[in-house]
Amino acid sequence: MSDSDRSRNGKHIHVVAGVIVDARDRILLARRTEGRDLAGLWEFPGGKVDPGETPEAALVRELREELGIEARVGTPVIAVPQQYPHKRLRLDVRRIDAWTGTVKGLDGQALVWVPSHKLASYAMPDADRPVVAALQDPDRYLITPEPGEDAARWLAALRAALDAGVRRVQLRAPAFAVGDPGRWRTLVERALAHVRDTGAEALINDDVAMAEAFGIGVHLRAPRLRTLSSRPLPKTQLVIASCHDLEELRLAQSIGCDAAVLGPVLPTASHPGAPGIGWERFVELREQVALPIYALGGMAVGDVALARSHGAQGIAAIRGLWPG
């Protein structure tokens, strides 16, 4: 049986959940009660969408029944497809703009208000994990192009991308790094000054030693990922991996990567004639791991919402995020 066939087995359930934030900027989690699947785990409150019901109406109803509040549903956060042993779930998560009433666990469920930075410390179902990342981490992941001979222009473009809101950057220049490693190291030092000045996060392409030296993250190419049995850096430094299939995604998850990049999803100018895996296949792979995943290939800033609707953390791109 293929991975695609396995992903289509089981009942398909549409669940909607809300991100409810209190006056102290804490987020509400509810604990799954005994007798339910995944009992004891913490989740964003909500429930199933009934036949003929819109997700917004379902969320208002569920929050009324479970918490005793009247909620005003806001914008989408992410829609996570997730494969469990006996069901296929689509977790459709929305922000709650406002509510009236007093929050209570009307089904006997425990409730807790959690500061955003502590959400990851709570044991959650697989479908809720990417939601935490969507709430906390950048939705755009810039991959830098080769600097060429004009390093000043490259640095100016990087700064422009950061000033435009990019907050996660992979410093990548394979030809430059191999051809002139000393100059590349100096350019990385200068780039990091801009990254740190704007409060962004930096990763270096496939060079664990340089990541250790500069105290930044590393982006693992798939060949290097396949040689690893454990995370190459401490949790204080990001580790993201390039993945192209389910085996690589599962390996990235098993060694503790913080996220993965999957693609190409759509055709790209850098790979003319290559069709890309498409959004349907992206979803089939996405739903079999709990790892945050960026969609790569043919992506632009305007595709962030589309990517989130397919369960992606956001987009990864060179041309789509690089000024000019």
From TrEMBL:
The yes or no answer to whether the keyword Protein biosynthesis is present is no
Nudix hydrolase domain boundaries:
10-137
**Do you know which Pfam families this protein is assigned to?**
NUDIX_4, TMP-TENI
Q: Which residues form the signal peptide?
A: none
Entry keyword annotation includes Manganese: no
Query: Which E.C. number(s) belong to this protein?
Result: 3.6.1.55
**What does this protein need as cofactor?**
Mg(2+)
The UniProt keywords, alphabetically, are: DNA damage, DNA repair, DNA replication, Hydrolase, Magnesium, Metal-binding, Mutator protein
Supply the InterPro entries for this chain: Aldolase_TIM, Mutator_MutT, MutT-like, MutY_C, Nudix_hydrolase, NUDIX_hydrolase-like_dom_sf, NUDIX_hydrolase_CS, NUDIX_hydrolase_dom
Q: Which PROSITE patterns match?
A: NUDIX, NUDIX_BOX
Catalyses which reaction(s): 8-oxo-GTP + H2O = 8-oxo-GMP + diphosphate + H(+); 8-oxo-dGTP + H2O = 8-oxo-dGMP + diphosphate + H(+)
GO MF, one example: hydrolase activity
EC main group:
hydrolase
Q: Which family does it belong to?
A: Belongs to the Nudix hydrolase family.
Name of this protein: 8-oxo-dGTP diphosphatase
Protein source organism: Lysobacter hankyongensis
